[in-house]
Amino acid sequence: MKQPRVLVSVLNWNNASATAECVNSLGQMQHDGFEADILVIDNGSRQADYLALQGAVAPESARILRVEENLGFTGGQNTSLKIGIDEGYDYVWMLNNDATVQPDTLAKLVNAMVLDARCGAVSPVIVPTDGGNYYNAWGLKHDWRRREGIWLQSEEESRRHQEAHPDNFCVAGTAVLLRVQALREVGLLDDRLFAYFDDNDIGVRLSEGGWRSKVVFDTTATHDLAVREERPPYFFYLMYRNEMMFWEKNMPRAHRRGLRLKQLDHSLFDVNRLRVRGMQQQADMALLGVGDFLAGRYGAPVLGRRAPLWLRLLCSVSGAYYKEKLHASVAVAGKAEHRMTT
C-alpha cells in the first residue's frame, strides 16, 4: 500500500529564531509508515529576518518559500494548502512556529486519519506553556442560538461530545492536520479573515460537508496562549470583525432572524466594556473592526483610522444605555480574576 504523504506547513513572520527552532525540532519527528516534507512560508518578513531564517534552516531539512507581503495566517497557510493539493499530498499539517510537539505527535495524528476515512481534521491536545488554563485543549462546539463558541473543559467532556455530536465539533488551529481530499471538497481557509476564527470556520465547513474533526488525546502540542489584555491592537480589530463575519456567514437559518442587529448590540456592549476597563486603544480598534465588518471590508487590517462617526456616536449611546450593566459586568469579571490568582 502506498504510504501517505504529509506536507508540514510552518509560517514565519519576523520571528526567524522561533521558526528555525520549530523546524529543527521536527528533525526528531517519527514518521514510520508515512512520508513527511517540511515547507516554511516566509510571510513577507523583513529582509534581515528572512536572511536569518535562510541561515538557520538547513536546505535539506525544509523548503523555504518567500511571499512578498504578509498574507496573514489564512493566506500564508493557503499557500501551503494549495501546494499540498497540487503536489498530491494526502495531508497538510498546519503547525504554529511557536508550538512544541512530541516526536510521535504527527504519527499519531496520521494514524487517527488512516483509521477514520471521514475524518477531515485532527489535533493533539493543546497544552499551555505556563501550565495554566487548558483553554483550547479539548476542542470547540458552537451554541448557535446564543452565538457562543464554547471550548470544552476536559478530556472526558471532549470524548463525550465528539461521540454524541460529531456534526458540531471543531479543533484549534495550532497544530491541526487536515485531509487534502476534504479541502478539495469544502475549500481552503477563508482569506477574508486574515487571522482568527479561521479554525471555527473551516471546522464548521468540514462538518457541513460530512467530515469529522477529532482531538487525539494521547499526544500534545505545547503552545503559549497570550493574555488577552497584552495582545497587540490588531488582535482586537480582527477578533471583533471576524467574530461578526463568522456568525453571519455560518449561522443556521433557524437562528438568523435579526442577527446583524443582535451582533451589533453585543459588540458595542463589549467595546464599552473595554473602555470601562481603561483599554481605550483596544476599544477603538475593536470598534474599527465592527465598522469594517458592517462595510464589508476584509483581509489585512488597515489600522491608523477611526470608526465612522455615526458608529462612534451609536457606541456612546449604547454605553450610556448599558452603564449600570457594564460596570456590574466588569466588577464581576474582576472578582473572578482575583479568585483565580489567589
Q: Could you characterize what this model shows?
A:
By secondary structure, this protein is α/β, with parallel strands linked by helices. It has 2 domains: 5-223, Alpha-Beta Complex (Spore Coat Polysaccharide Biosynthesis Protein SpsA, Chain A); 228-340, no CATH class. The protein has 12 helices and 10 strands. The strands form 2 sheets. An 8-stranded mixed sheet has the order 3-2-1-4-9-6-10-5, sandwiched between helices. A two-stranded antiparallel ribbon has the order 7-8. Strand 7 and strand 8 form a beta hairpin. Helix 1 packs parallel to helix 2 (47-56), helix 8 runs parallel beside helix 10 and helix 9 runs antiparallel to helix 10. The longest helix is centred in the last third of the chain and has 18 residues, at 233-250.
List keywords for this structure.
single chain; 342 residues; alpha/beta; Spore Coat Polysaccharide Biosynthesis Protein SpsA, Chain A; 2 domains; 8-stranded mixed beta sheet; two-stranded antiparallel sheet; 46% helix; globular; disordered C terminus
SSE blueprint and pairings:
Blueprint: E1 5-12, H1 16-25, E2 35-43, H2 47-56, E3 63-67, H3 72-86, E4 91-95, E5 100-101, H4 105-115, E6 119-128, E7 140-143, E8 148-151, H5 155-164, E9 175-179, H6 180-186, H7 198-208, E10 212-223, H8 233-250, H9 259-276, H10 280-295, H11 309-321, H12 323-340
Parallel strand pairs: 1-2, 1-4, 2-3, 6-10
Antiparallel strand pairs: 4-9, 5-10, 6-9, 7-8
Helix pairs in contact: 1-2, 8-9, 8-10, 9-10, 9-11, 9-12
